Amino acid sequence: MKFHSSLSEKADDARATFWFHRCMIVDAPPTVRQLWALAAALCERAGLAFPHDRAAASKLIEQLRREAGHPAPGLEGSTRADARPRRGRGTERLAKAIAAEVARELR
Length: 107
Hints:
Blueprint: H1 6-23, H2 32-46, H3 54-67, H4 90-106
C-alpha cells in the first residue's frame, strides 16, 4: 500500500540526502560502527572468521601481526609508559590509530 505520491517520495529523498551531507563531517575519524564493518569486511576478504570475543580477537590480532612481521605482535607483558589516567578524546585517538593501521595494512 502506497501513501505517498511520487512527488513526496522525491522530496523525502532530497531531504534525506541534504541531511546526510549536512551532518557528515568529512575529516572526522571513522565511527566505531565503521571500524567494526571494516574489520568484518577485511576478515571476510582474508577468509578468516570474525572473532566473537576479546580473547579470540587478541589471538587473531597477534597472529596477523606475526604474519606481517610486526616487531611487537603480542601485548602481554607491556606496560603503559604513563600511569596517570588520561581524560578526554581517547576514543578519537584510538579510532584514528586503528584507521591508520588498517590503511597501512591495505597498502
